[in-house]
């Protein structure tokens, strides 16, 4: 694995969020809900909600990455998941930080299929080998990405006494 990385600062994140919101608006898509994939898509979902005037925000927790370039065999949704009845008939914008393998986005898109009027996907970064092509992406890269919220180690370790 190369040591070269894509580095996203908080300032660039703000620019990316605004430009992605403009892409969505320019396409004519008017989502009723922004469904963020936790944890990476939370900040993007919140930013898009404000920029697009969407107050209906929801979260789906999916675990796939366990470390730098280390992942589970398949992504898994963790409870609680939104009830399908809550999504019925809505136009949903699924937000995540990156479409790396694309399998997380694919899982969430399949979860929404058949329950929503329409689901579109938005990511900050799209990787060329992703199995799903996001509807909206800010940039494409094949590098490992240092996001501002995960570039530094946690301030506390699991299992440490408080």
UniProtKB/TrEMBL annotation:
Picking any one GO molecular function of the record gives: glycosyltransferase activity
Top-rank taxon of the source lineage equals Bacteria
Residues of the Phosphoribosyltransferase domain = 11-150
Keyword flag Isomerase: no
Alphabetized UniProt keyword annotations = Glycosyltransferase, Transferase
PANTHER family linked = HYPOXANTHINE PHOSPHORIBOSYLTRANSFERASE, HYPOXANTHINE-GUANINE PHOSPHORIBOSYLTRANSFERASE
Its protein name is: Phosphoribosyltransferase domain-containing protein
Record organism: Nocardioides exalbidus
């Amino acid at each position: 694995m190369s040591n070269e990385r894509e580095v996203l600062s908080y300032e660039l994140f703000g620019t990316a969020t605004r430009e992605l919101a403009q892409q969505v608006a320019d396409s004519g898509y008017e989502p009723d809900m922004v469904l963020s994939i936790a944890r990476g898509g939370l900040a993007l979902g919140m930013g898009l909600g404000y920029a697009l005037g969407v107050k209906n925000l929801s979260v789906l927790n999916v675990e796939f990455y366990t470390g730098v370039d280390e992942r589970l065999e398949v992504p898994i949704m963790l409870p609680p998941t939104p009830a399908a009845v809550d999504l019925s008939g809505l136009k949903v914008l699924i937000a995540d930080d990156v479409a790396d393998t694309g399998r997380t986005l694919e899982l969430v898109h399949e979860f929404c299929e058949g329950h929503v009027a329409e689901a579109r996907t938005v990511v900050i970064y799209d990787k060329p080998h992703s199995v799903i092509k996001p509807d909206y992406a800010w940039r494409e890269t094949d590098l490992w990405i240092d996001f501002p919220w995960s570039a530094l180690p946690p301030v506390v370790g699991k299992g440490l006494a408080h």
